[in-house]
Design brief:
Keywords: Membrane, Signal, Transmembrane, Transmembrane helix
InterPro entries: Delta_60_rpt
Strand order of the largest sheet: 2-29-28-27
Shape: globular
Number of strands: 29
Strand content: 35-45%
Distance between the termini: 18 Å
Structural class: mainly beta
Length: 445
């Protein structure tokens, strides 16, 4: 009887060990799980990825061409080009007549009908501060330019507050329009952001700001992020950099659909992100249902609802900087990237963490992948998940844009052979369990 109880305890110990299943490349995707999607001119050409509800996905990057050209390709779930999009799966749109020092796809958004909005930024280092130029592209669900948008051509955007214009940092979909956002920080601390609302036909929205442009200032503000709120408005997240002896604190500032400050929100249009000093949030990542995840100082993460109200906060360290937060079933995949100056250590800077709704690591998910995570420290990365629970990672090196897809976590956990984390006590029990049957056979009588 004692022997049976002992063996049961041993089985429970083995089953309760932290099984660390390694993510494996999906053999049904591309060539053995990876795919080269385009040539790349430099590691700065970070691909942007967007998933569709049916498992197809879109990849956008700057093409290697004589003039600045954005390349957009749509793929079937197995990695084949979707022939129903553009020219045999690829659409290319010229966005300017000449190159500047740097050109990149700043934002990619998918409409509910499968159409696309893309914003392209060019940067020139001649002069100080650097000059920026932005171009907006709209494609229909078939991958072709929409004739009703600027006559079917790419739309050069006015400088967002030249001469102190900045990089385009966010593009929000709002019904049949887009809101383009950039921020500038000057000394003494004086935060300023610009919002430009462009309608579906490519014209500035005359009912927003002044002829479609809003310039907002807030003394001491820095590190802007933005989110749409129900009803057509939006709110800006900013941080006040108090004197060194006081902690930083983040606030929401809400604007109506016409760009005016919503004075009914909080106190005269402003509200602390979370009660208490030192509540500091740097970046926002959009999640389904209007929720957003914010990254605070160190390993602190904040989950907000569609109104920006704090739902919960938790500790998790996905990497030095969070570059993606994606739902994976009922869990949340956090993709971090470490950025190093000087000579970086070898290997990929990416890290993958899977957490539950309270931020607790999911047992059995180690974040390790077959063959190691792709890329080097000076590559640029993107990552998304799909409804089937698969992870797609894209990165650019000096030669090409490459994609890697990993099998859904559930399938990996069931097909991989887990290695229980027993520890010293577990090993002792395991040895005793093996010796008990031997001792019984050797017992006299």
């Amino acid at each position: 009887m004692r022997e049976n109880i002992f063996l049961r305890l041993l089985v429970l110990l083995l089953l309760s060990g932290a099984a660390q299943a390694e993510l494996r490349l999906d053999p049904g995707f591309g060539s053995g799980g990876s795919l080269v999607v385009a040539a790349s001119g430099s590691r700065d050409d970070r691909p942007l990825l967007a998933g569709l509800a049916d498992g197809r996905f879109v990849v956008a990057n700057m093409a290697v061409a004589d003039v600045p050209t954005v390349r957009v390709a749509r793929y079937l779930a197995d990695g084949r080009l979707d022939s129903g999009f553009g020219n045999h799966g690829v659409s290319q749109v010229v966005v300017a007549a000449e190159h500047w020092d740097t050109s990149l796809v700043a934002s990619l958004k998918v409409r509910s009908d499968g159409g696309l909005w893309l914003a392209v930024t060019r940067k020139s280092f001649l002069g100080s501060p650097p000059a920026y130029s932005h171009t907006l592209v709209r494609l229909g669900p078939d991958g072709n330019p929409v004739p009703g948008f600027n006559g079917g051509a790419a739309l050069p955007l006015p400088a967002l507050g030249s001469p102190d214009n900045g990089p385009l940092e966010e593009m929000l979909l709002q019904d049949d329009a887009v809101l383009l956002l950039a921020s500038i920080y000057t000394a003494p601390p004086q935060g300023r952001f610009k919002a430009l609302r462009i309608r579906a036909d490519g014209t500035p929205d005359p009912g927003f700001g002044v002829a479609g442009l809003l310039i907002a200032e807030r003394a001491g503000a820095f590190s802007y992020s933005w989110m749409s709120v129900p009803g057509g408005g939006f709110q800006a997240l900013y941080t006040i950099f108090n004197p060194p002896e006081l902690p930083r604190q983040s606030f929401w500032r809400r604007y109506r659909g016409d760009g005016s400050l919503d004075l009914t929100f909080g106190s005269a249009g402003e509200q602390a992100v979370a009660p208490g000093a030192g509540r500091y949030v740097a970046n926002l990542f959009a999640l389904p249902g209007g929720h957003h995840l914010g990254q605070g100082l160190g390993c602190h993460l904040f989950l907000f609802d569609s109104q920006g109200q704090l739902l919960r906060e938790f500790e998790s360290c996905p990497g030095r900087e969070l570059i993606a937060a994606q739902p994976l079933g009922d869990k949340l995949l956090l993709v971090g990237q470490d950025f190093f100056g000087g000579t970086p250590p070898p290997g990929s800077p990416l890290s993958l963490r899977l957490v539950d709704g309270s931020g607790n690591p999911v047992p059995g998910f180690s974040g390790e992948v077959e063959g190691g995570l792709p890329g080097l420290y000076d590559d640029r990365f993107a990552a998304i998940t799909d409804r089937a629970g698969r992870i797609l990672i894209g990165h650019a090196d000096n030669d090409a844009i490459r994609l890697y897809r990993y099998q859904e976590v559930g399938a990996v956990a069931s097909s991989a052979v887990p290695v229980p984390a027993l520890g010293a006590a577990g090993l002792i029990l395991l040895l005793l369990g093996l010796l008990l049957p031997v001792r019984r056979r050797l017992r006299p009588g």
